[in-house]
Amino acid sequence: METDPRHAQCLVAVGELGRVVLIRTDKGGPEAGCSTAGFTEGCVPGPVVCSCVDKNHLYYSTGSDLLVLDLIKESSESEGQERDEETSRKLAAALQCPTSLNVCRVIDLTEPTCSTTGEIQLLGLSVRGQLQRITLPLGREGRVPSTQMGRSVKDLLSAIGDVCERSSVLKSSIKSKNQILRHLNQVLNITFLLTASTNTEEHLPLQEKPIRCHAMARWSRLLQKDSLNLTCVLVNSSPYVLEQGWTLSITVFPLSYSLSAGGESSSTSFSFPLSNVHPGQTLEVSLPLAGADDTSFPVTVNCSLTFSLTNLLGEEDLVSFTGLQSCCISLPLNTLIVDWLHTLQAYSSTASHKKSTSQCDVTTDAIQAFLKSHQIRCSAGGERVSKQEKEQYSASVRVSSELLKDTLELKKSDLDQPESKTVPQIVCISLLDWLLSEGHGGVETEYQKDKIAASSSVVYAQAPNGDTVKVTVKEVNVGEQTLGKQESLPTVEVRVESTSLAAVCGLHHAVLSRVQTLLQRAPERAASTKRIQSLGLRQALQRAERLLQQIQQKQISEAFGLGVSTKQMTLSLLSVYQELRENPLPII
């Protein structure tokens, strides 16, 4: 600030946050005989974007308004030799009351100039890059000319337009942030809901989970190739909407692998983006599970919900949040199991019906049989190989009839019909129907009852590898003669027969898995057949000891190099497996 046209006697320093410091020279006392630097500090309403001074005024912009501060009183008071606390207090009060010029969005100012008529002119640069000439009359307290009034109105209208534009931008930003917060709140609610259900998964059945998946396996034929497809159904029983941004992830992982696949087991993942699955609604997705001649069963199907945090932000916001591009939330739902029983294609309950298939299948089977016979004739020892191919493998599981009556929920009216079917027949047919139609592991099948005789407990079906399997359910009595008494236990035997060892092993495992679910339903009651079980257990232990000795002898012979080949060892282990599966202990 200049108080003399020759040189400046005051320096004004303005900070970005509104701190103002006035530095000037004060004359010393009579003893000092020299001048000292005096500092006056205060604050103005900030922030300060830009500023400039003239002889008596400080002009500064806060971005939203252009203000002017009158410093002439300070200059007149500072000419004295002493300045007391009252002078500083008056200056601080003056700094808090600047005068508004009603001009907004100014980011730079030039040095003020004075026209010949005494008007003060400022040249400012707006945020939009426009130059604005701001003219102030010499006597601001006096009457404003009409031309200046027009300029003021124009400036006010421009300021109003700028404020409206800023208000619109702020409203849009607030609306976008509210939408993000609402979406994030939904994501957190679903996360807490599924996390709580996962922690109590042991006591929460699949049907009661708020968000769950179940599936149906069905065979289809396309371009003369059979394939097993899985239709997975997502059920939303929660009170929340699965909005856009959620993804249903399904991973198929075989528990075993086929030799044709190179001895490796690999998983396959599928992703299905969701779009507003409301409470009570379902979503169906289909995926290929296996092709013909595939024996890598059972397979586990892991279902989960994933949400990427990048869906909460727009493309512009993602630039400042580069770390969120790889962040996502993964919530496991449930695991489904597809076993060999799910993959069977039942077509008959009698062997004669098996021959009445379509002409296309008969032709295909004839061609395959011709190729196999040709390979057998060309290979050495073809007669022995042909004999081995026709060998039948079998495995069985025995379950107590009382256990089946209690767990299969058979109605008493169904059991009291001796004129049509016997009670054992009803139990056997019900068990066979339950094995083929029950949605075990959360997976259902297209079990066609019209192809199975209503009074039959025998089913012929085609395995995934194309071989024919036979499933027989019949009643057998397990007992022994002890101390002159005949102890017997009515049991139901499930027998699986096929020329394919892989099919027999896979179906035997599937039947045992389903029987385990029956045991979980079984009511607690005292066992009345301890004697039979003890005798059966003794026989099983004796048989196991004999088979163990047989295996050890084979291993010793191989260790000493007595001519035991790998093929002979494989056949020996196969015979052990068959003997263990031939006479199983009954499950009571």
What brief labels describe this structure?
24 strands; alpha+beta; 3 domains; Immunoglobulin-like; four-stranded antiparallel sheet
What does this protein structure show overall?
The chain has 588 residues and is α+β, with helices and mostly antiparallel strands. The protein folds into 3 domains: 10-142, no CATH class; 206-338, Immunoglobulin-like (Sandwich), CATH 2.60.40; 344-528, no CATH class. It is 35% helix and 30% strand. The protein contains 14 helices and 24 strands. The strands form 6 sheets. Strands 19-22-23-24-20 form a 5-stranded antiparallel beta sheet, sandwiched between helices. A 4-stranded antiparallel beta sheet has the order 4-5-6-7, with no helix packed on it. Helix 7 packs antiparallel against helix 8. It is rod-shaped and about 125 Å long. The N and C termini lie far apart (106 Å). Residues 74-79, 351-367 and 376-388 have low confidence and may be disordered. It comes from Channa striata. InterPro entries: Faap100 (IPR029251). This is Fanconi anemia core complex-associated protein 100.
